From TrEMBL:
Residues 39-150 form the DUF4174 domain. It holds the Pfam family DUF4174. Keywords: Signal. InterPro entries: DUF4174. This is DUF4174 domain-containing protein. Residues 1-24 form the signal peptide. It comes from Adhaeribacter arboris. The lineage of its organism: Bacteria, Pseudomonadati, Bacteroidota, Cytophagia, Cytophagales.
Length: 154
């Protein structure tokens, strides 16, 4: 009788572990949906805007254009999600999911502006609801252990 009880509890434990493992793999596949196929090579600055005339988007674009050297020095790709369009600057062969999928992944309302910094490890490092000065973003990146390692290796 005891053997049977252990067997049932072993099965329960087995199914519980499988369920937890399935959730972890599902979360990992959701994470990979953001399209960061080259995890480890680039950081991403995701810019979400409701339309191309959004004042925060225009301000952010202007600031980033003036900081293009700092962006490339830090391996930072800019991904703009405007309306239903997704655009990567500079243009690289990087597949990104559709705008709706990115908004869902990062919990961004289509009517909202947001700036999200994603590290080389694929995790979100910073989020703001308005345009961010490149110096602020660069300070955050430069304080990251991976960036400090890169600077020592240069």
């Amino acid at each position: 009788m005891r053997k049977k009880t252990m067997s049932i509890s072993s099965w329960v434990l087995f199914f519980l572990c499988c369920a937890l493992l399935g959730k972890a793999q599902s979360a990992e596949s959701d994470h990979s949906k953001i399209g960061l196929m080259d995890k480890g090579k680039h950081r991403f600055l995701l810019i979400f805007a409701p339309d191309s005339q959004n004042e925060f988007l225009l301000e952010q674009d202007k600031m980033l254009r003036q900081a293009h050297l700092g962006l490339s020095e830090r391996d930072l790709l800019v991904v703009q999600v405007v309306e239903n369009n997704v655009e990567i600057n500079p243009h690289v062969k990087e597949e990104m999911p559709p705008a709706a999928s990115l908004r869902q992944t990062y919990k961004i309302n289509p009517a909202q502006f947001a700036v999200i910094l994603v590290g080389k490890d694929g995790t979100e490092k910073y989020r703001a609801a308005h345009a961010q000065a490149p110096a602020v973003l660069f300070d955050i990146i430069d304080s990251m252990p991976m960036r400090q390692h890169e600077k020592r290796s240069e």
